[in-house]
Amino acid sequence: MTKVDPSQLATRVLEGDRRAIAQAITLVESARPDDRNAAGELLGLLAPEAGRSIRIGISGVPGVGKSTFIESLGNHIIDQGHRVAVLAVDPSSAISGGSILGDKTRMETLSRRMEAFIRPSPAGTTLGGVTRHTRETMRIVEAAGFDVIIIETVGVGQSETTVAEMTDFFLLLLLPGGGDELQGIKRGIVELADLIVVNKADGELENAADRAAADYRAALGFLHPRHPDWQVPIETCSALGHRGIDKVWQIIEAFRNTMSKNGAITAARARQARTWLWSEISATLLESLQHDQRLRSRVTELEQQVAEGRMSPWVAAQELVDAYRQAGNGQAGNGQAENSQTGKSTR
Q: Whole-prediction pTM value?
């Protein structure tokens, strides 16, 4: 992207300039080294004004109606006097790398409200239902004055748990399906939920939704609660009919009040910051290793040996890390590295 002045951009973001907010998010999502430096400066300038929102993560099985639910919930929250930012993560194609990014079209009424900001982003290769820069994006919209942040994940699965590690409240949205569906999503993500909502409780599905809610209540009795001071509620709603949405928001507010009083949110955010630190360290080191020109030929050799079954991936990884360390000390110009296990040259 074109060169930006982080100071000027930060000022515009703090004023709530929507174009500046979008520009700031694009900046932190950029992989260009010069953009990363500017993004770091921008985030530092915005940091004092960030962190004051309630962060809500929402996940659910495909077809559960996440976008309709978020639109209905977002409109209700705005009606209560809040400003809502929706960070929607779309799956990226493993073949083309592209994504649909269609959440603005699916949240038509919410996207037209000035108190709402919707930003769809591609998941890329990041696992966990979020993007690598979702955390930075949260802090940008918080600094811009949005006090309720909703993160919509790609879709439920056993790896769809990262969102619970970056939000205050995790809501799991389910269809009227009962025990079979509960078995299908596994217990890991259920144990992370602070609220389970059975959607589409209307028409012929209303009774099925009530039965499903009863099944989930019974199942939760065998699981340990995530927070000792919070019993996970099971509710039904109709996002399309706007029924039960007010109860969902009341529960979120009750959770925030309880967890703020006992210090759980403050403690959780401290843990999340440490997790974020090591996540960025891992991603940055991996990028540096992959793009180190001194190791390019060695990487190609190791990949070939692993592909042909002449070396285990574990040993190859150890050798590559050792070569990277030596390159950092100016000792790997010839591309040679010693096997960390045998001490013998691999060339």
A: 0.82
- Segments of the chain with pLDDT less than 50: 92-102, 123-130, 158-159, 331-347
What domains are there in the chain, each with its CATH number? 1-49 (1.20.5.170), 51-262 (3.40.50.300)
Give me the pLDDT at residue 186, please: 57
**Per-residue pLDDT, 96:** 36
Report the distance separating Cα 4 and Cα 277, nearest Å: 25
Q: For residue 210, with 0-12 CB atoms within 10 Å meaning exposed, 13-18 middle and 19 or more buried, which class applies?
A: middle
User: What does each C-alpha distance from 139 to 87, 158, 263, 313 come to in angstroms?
Assistant: 12, 27, 21, 38
In this prediction, residue 345 carries a pLDDT of 39
The DSSP result for 67-113, as a single string, is HHHHHHHHHHHHHTT--EEEEEEEPPPTTT------HHHHTHHHHT-
Cα gap 63→91, rounded to integer Å = 14
Cβ contacts of residue 154 below 8 Å, gap of 6+? 89, 90, 91, 123, 129, 130, 160
**Which residues pair with residue 121 across a beta bridge?**
89
Angle at 50 between CA 273 and CA 88, to 5 degrees: 80
Q: How far apart are CA 25 and CA 127, in angstroms?
A: 20
Question: How far is CA 151 from each of CA 56, 108, 118, 316, rounded to the nearest angstrom?
Answer: 6, 17, 10, 38
pLDDT in tens, 139-172: 999 999 999 999 988 665 544 567 888 899 999 9
Backbone CA torsion sign across 308, 309, 310, 314: positive
Any residues with CB less than 8 A from the CB of 190 and at least 6 apart, and which? 172, 182, 196, 219, 220, 223
**Per-residue model confidence (pLDDT) at position 95:** 35
In sequence order, the 6+-apart residues with CB closer than 8 A to the CB of 119 are: 22, 25, 85, 86, 87, 88, 137, 141
Rounded to whole angstroms, what are the CA distances from 310 to 145, 302, 304, 316?
56, 9, 9, 10
Answer for the pair 304, 318: CB distance below 8 angstroms, yes or no: no
